Amino acid sequence: MTEMTEEIKKTKKGKLERNRIWMSWTFVLIPTLFIITFYFYPMIQAFWISLHTGTGVNLDFTGLDNYRRLFNDQAFITAVTNTFIFFIFQIPLMIILALFFSVLLNQKTLHFKGIFRTLVFLPAITSLVAYSLIFRYLFSNDGVVNQALMFMNLIDAPIFWLGDPFWAKVLIIIAITWRWTGYNMIFYLSALQNIDPGIYEAARIDGASAVQQFFRITIPMLRPVILFTSITSTIGTLQLFDEPMNLTGGGPGNATTTISQYIYNLSFEYTPNFGYAAAVSYSIVVFVLILSAIQFRVGRERK
Amino acid sequence: MFSKKHLFLSASAVLLLAACGNGDDETGDTGDTGEETTEETSGDMNELTVWTWDPNFNVRALEMAEERYQEENPDFSLNIVENSQEDVVQRLNTSLSSGVDTGLPQIVFIEDYRAPSFLNSYDDAFYPLGDYYNTDEFADYKVAAGTVDGNVYNVPFDTGVTGLYARTDYLEEAGYSLEDLEDITWDEYIEIGKDVYDQTGIKWITNDHGDLGLMRIMLQSSGVWWTEDDGTTPYIADNEALKMAFEDYKEMVEADIMNVHNEWDQFIQTFNNGDVVTVPTGNWISASIMQAEDQSGNWGIAPIPRQDMEGSVNASNLGGSSIYVLQGEGQEAAAEFLAATFGSDVEFYQELVTEINALGAYEPAMEGEAYEQESEFYGGQQIFQDLSEWTQEIPEVEFGQRTYEIQDILAVALQDYLNGADLDEVLQNAQEQAESNM
Amino acid sequence: MKNEKRMKRIATYVFLILVSFIFFFPFYFLIVSITNPSIDITRGDLLPGSHLIENFRTMIETTPIGLSIWNSALVSVGQTIISIFVSSLAGYGFEVHPSRGKEVVYNIILLSMMIPFAALMVPLFRLFGTISGIVPALGIDTLFGVVLPYVSTAFLVFFFRQNTKMFPKELIEAGRIDGLSELGIFVKIFIPTMKTTYAAAGIVTFMNSWNNYLWPLIVLQSPSNYTVPLVISAMGSGYTIDYGSVMIAIFITTIPTAVIFFVLQKYFVQGMVGSIK
């Protein structure tokens, strides 16, 4: 694509092409102006705030002190560790599940497709209030889940889902997967339509099995969208807030506290320290930058 | 060619925005007129805006106050803006710290634990109210929560006076009565609990390990907090009351008399389901307990246990909020309204008790007849009388600016301690961590 | 062979029904809850009760739920239409006419997506304080103010650019040969071809807008301008929460997104691109 444009540039750098370049900049500039005004500019201001320390409006310029403090802040280090544990298990699990469901629910011959799709998507729109109520209830010590597991002889004693540091993390991962799988499925479902069915036909004639088709055609064709979902999910997980806040309150102790929750606490729950909260926010930017750079690289490599 | 296309593009962008504009116009208009009327009246300040939470409690109380005040001031009205408490905190912080005063209310409710943070973080944002009402007539600890450098910034609202809510039928089953729970220490409380649990198999108490409300109750009954009187220096490692609270807590867990719940809804579920014998907490829990109509007559309220140390009393507090006025246009009108209602109206306090079980910290109100009523649900006990008496005994403590911050540090410490770590070490760590955050 | 296929089909349906049950269960609880009094909800009652009308009445009497649904609808529909159009234009532009300069701009856009919104709130509110001073109709406490930061989002620009990578570029050349302008190609070829991408973006944007919480909370101040999540959040706060009316409010306000999803997912039919080609 790039080569093509460059070629055009070289051969007929005429009026027409100049127009195209102009137009393409217009396409891009309107949204860019909005994003710079409403995100990038506040982001720079947030960085400026992160160089200040104090409570509320009583801020003093302290340079990089806030960033230095991060390295010695036990609560921050725990939050980062927790967030990364969620990230490592959460992202692959959810992406694989979402891919699986989208292919399953994309079969031409499947009946009640619309209903099944809606049901899988439903958790994404079920209000947090309702679902945290029911999750806490289902996963309480004598709740339905423990009873079922004990009935199936999978466990001897009830699992202390909300009170045990390990199981509380598991619960959070279950909850996020349950809530966001259907959401990610939408992106794959829509992208699947853009694959030319002829390619599958040709593969079938060559005797490729369904599994082979999935790995040799579906996955490579969906690569741009998989990259999109993995990066947006990375951002979502590194900014994870709703589930720990509503399900476990970050507990037991601080076993499920996330970076975003810590930012919230620093800004509003404790005496407001916006400078330090902004510094913690920028740590998320750094983490996401590193992780997306890796993902972009992996996503491009096999092109 | 280009200019034509360009024109078309910008034209379509304008059209699009305009189209959206039309869509929004209708509410935009109502919004605008709403704003205008606020601005118009804000000249003579007949309508005051209030930010608060809790539709069944704070909002109802305000509506009742508004109605009473209107009898003398027919043009007066309140614009009550309802959000959750977290949301009020968030909006207030965002507005005050950004320096944008558009839309800020005249009156705002703030939880007592959070008040020192706001008062110290935003100088000159709040309007002093000490001259508008007689602060001596209120429980000292309530007024203290809104006082900075000798200036009183709050009008107290509900007291968080605590009681030991107990199931009298379960107690009887184990051979005890409510009197056995009166004027006891936490150690005695635990001993009785073990016995009742042995006999009935029903848990004695329920708690969320992440919510250190029980510790706050214990500390305040002994007149201390987890910060020193300056409101910022951590007071953890050498804090005898805190140490004792941790030990008692662990004993309850190890004796297996404590049910562990998570979050508010499970807390309510536990006692509504009859899964627990006692609930030591703030009096605002009454309404939730009374939801279980089938348990009527089976509940009673004893004074909260005290710590086994000098100076500790059988009275404490948990939660509760006060009312504040923001500096700016309408501050006097707001202060006058609050002074005439929450600050001095004995009859109003009777209504609060009768209508919504809201208990204020206003001493003269106790003489009213509403406080003498006997509650059928609580076995005929004069609960308002009892709770108000305990209110007067609540020790005054300086909540300081770090209540929730240090609570989070202590929640981790508690977890470590429950898992077998040494108490002194755990508290020493917490002390150091709290100091390093200063 | 035929038998095996049949077994496979049955297994698929059994699996799907099982999975649907898991995904549906909390929603089932929500439906049951709207018929129960508060106390039964916190008790975890999983059977329908007879409290539906009372819950409904409490909700209507104590909350401005109707008005908030109207406000949310305006905001969500407006935001969805505008931001999808503007953002897809950019995603298309970045992918179809790439250049070094645009890559720099694109990276800035992506960067802006990485910071938690909580960190932007105070500066953004300050910015809106300024906007309010100049054009009050776009500023604080207006529905425009809710939409403005989302006229274009990095998320959607990114989404459209990634999907444009799957767009058959031959169609652009074909359009040029037919004498279509660049915008003409976008409107007449790109949009119809990428219908399913637009459907997905529509679902997601509508849902995000409908459920958006933090920014409306900060920017809206008059209850008459409140959107749905603000009203529901206020209902669930206090010493004694009436879960019955909270649940019915949640239930009613969940329906629009579910319907939008159900309608738009019909566009997810394989072979769309092929048929246009």
Automatic annotation (TrEMBL), chain A:
It is found in: Cell membrane. It comes from the Bacteria. Keywords: Cell membrane, Membrane, Transmembrane, Transmembrane helix, Transport. It is a multi-pass membrane protein. GO terms for cellular component: plasma membrane. One of its GO terms (biological process) is transmembrane transport. The chain crosses the membrane at residues 21-41, 84-106, 118-139, 159-178, 221-241, 274-294. Coiled coil: none annotated. Residues 80-295 form the ABC transmembrane type-1 domain. PANTHER family: ABC TRANSPORTER PERMEASE PROTEIN (PTHR30193), INNER MEMBRANE ABC TRANSPORTER PERMEASE PROTEIN YCJO (PTHR30193:SF37). Belongs to the binding-protein-dependent transport system permease family. This is Lactose/L-arabinose transport system permease protein. The lineage of its organism: Bacteria, Bacillati, Bacillota, Bacilli, Lactobacillales.
From TrEMBL, chain B:
Residues 24-45 are annotated as: Disordered. InterPro entries: Bact_solute-bd_prot1, SBP. It comes from the Bacteria. Gene3D superfamilies: Periplasmic binding protein-like II (3.40.190.10). Keywords: Signal. Residues 24-42 have a biased composition (Acidic residues). SUPFAM superfamilies: Periplasmic binding protein-like II. Residues 1-18 form the signal peptide. Pfam families: SBP_bac_8 (PF13416). This is Lactose-binding protein. It comes from Alkalibacterium subtropicum.
From TrEMBL, chain C:
Residues 69-264 form the ABC transmembrane type-1 domain. The keyword Magnesium does not apply. GO terms for cellular component: plasma membrane. Keywords: Cell membrane, Membrane, Transmembrane, Transmembrane helix, Transport. Gene3D superfamilies: MetI-like. The keyword Cell membrane applies. It comes from the Bacteria. InterPro entries: MetI-like (IPR000515), MetI-like_sf (IPR035906). It is a multi-pass membrane protein. Pfam families: BPD_transp_1 (PF00528). It is found in: Cell membrane. The chain crosses the membrane at residues 12-31, 69-92, 104-128, 134-160, 243-264. GO terms for biological process: transmembrane transport. Belongs to the binding-protein-dependent transport system permease family. This is Lactose/L-arabinose transport system permease protein. It comes from Alkalibacterium subtropicum. The lineage of its organism: Bacteria, Bacillati, Bacillota, Bacilli, Lactobacillales.
